[in-house]
Amino acid sequence: LVVDGKAVAKTIRDEITVDVSRMKESIGVVPGLAVILVGDRKDSATYVRNKKKACESVGIKSLEVRLAEDCSEEQVLKSISCFNDDPSIHGILVQLPLPSHMDEQNILNAVSIEKDVDGFHPLNIGRLAMRGREPLFVPCTPKGCIELLHRYNVEIKGKRAVVIGRSNIVGMPAALLLQREDATVSIIHSRTKNPEEITREADIIIAAVGQPNMVRGSWIKPGAVIIDVGINPVDDPNAPRGYRLVGDVCYEEACQIASAITPVPGGVGPMTIAMLLSNTLISAKRIHNFE
Ligand code: NAP
């Protein structure tokens, strides 16, 4: 079974479109997302463009601030503070990575937790980690992974889950989310001695490593469900751009053994953007007390 992230993301965007217009009609509020892009990395510019397009497609207002690569940290902090105070903005996103002369922690800490639609503020991550606490926002990529499992009726409770990768933006929050849903979770990282053996125990695998085709067929328990977060360019002279994108999981091998798997592209990627829109809508609803 192919887990069709593109189709699920489309369904979610349609649901969001309905809610956005319902909100506009009944209380006259349009959800607003502010995106801060520092420097001129091509990949970052593409991500920001896609996020803005996605906002447009569901009726969310988006605003972009572009700052030069060599601007000061204070300038970034100033933009954040403006948006923190702007009642027409419900979500603030600072596109990462930031230029190396800036302190990422300082900058992420400055985003109001009520508008932290990326869910990267330490207070939101801390609440995610604590039992009995609720974060205001959950980071978009891991939230998209769990949403896919839900929409495909994959039982999480009581299952063995393995997350490969422990980054702040994907692996770590994915593991916390699985644990909140009562899975028994193992986390594999670059110092793990026997990743293959541990992965083979898993009913659910979330791979977020950034290593093309690392997870081979022999790593997978028959019937496991695989969510492949990896987006890795590999050379391909036959592809129009000279490269193509592959996941962290060897798809050809895995699809023979797994019961369900996300493709790359068309799996987690579209879900990430859908969750950003969802978080922005959630924020606007919460701020305006709209159900
Ligand atoms: P990252 O910050 O580079 O983290 C990679 C993690 O994988 C680290 O925890 C690292 O371990 C671990 N790792 C690296 N090599 C390993 C190995 N050989 N064996 C076991 N663990 C290993 O990457 P990220 O930001 O989490 O992204 C991971 C992948 O997801 C990338 O391909 C990225 O492009 C993709 N991604 C996709 C989306 C989406 O929307 N679909 C969003 C974000 C990222 P250590 O902690 O020990 O260094």
Automatic annotation (TrEMBL):
Domain Tetrahydrofolate dehydrogenase/cyclohydrolase NAD(P)-binding: 139-286
GO cellular component term, pick one: cytoplasm
Coiled coil: none
Catalytic reaction list: (6R)-5,10-methylene-5,6,7,8-tetrahydrofolate + NADP(+) = (6R)-5,10-methenyltetrahydrofolate + NADPH; (6R)-5,10-methenyltetrahydrofolate + H2O = (6R)-10-formyltetrahydrofolate + H(+)
Presence of the UniProt keyword NADP in the record: yes
Domain of life from the UniProt record: Eukaryota
Keyword Magnesium: no
Molecular-function annotations in GO: methenyltetrahydrofolate cyclohydrolase activity; methylenetetrahydrofolate dehydrogenase (NADP+) activity
One example of a Gene Ontology biological process annotation: one-carbon metabolic process
Keywords annotated in UniProt: Hydrolase, Multifunctional enzyme, NADP, One-carbon metabolism, Oxidoreductase, Photorespiration
Record-annotated Tetrahydrofolate dehydrogenase/cyclohydrolase catalytic domain positions: 3-118
Gene3D superfamilies: Leucine Dehydrogenase, chain A, domain 1, NAD(P)-binding Rossmann-like Domain
Pathway(s) annotated for this protein in UniProt: One-carbon metabolism; tetrahydrofolate interconversion
Function: Catalyzes the oxidation of 5,10-methylenetetrahydrofolate to 5,10-methenyltetrahydrofolate and then the hydrolysis of 5,10-methenyltetrahydrofolate to 10-formyltetrahydrofolate.
Subunit text: Homodimer.
NCBIfam families listed in its UniProt record: PRK14186.1
Protein name: Methenyltetrahydrofolate cyclohydrolase
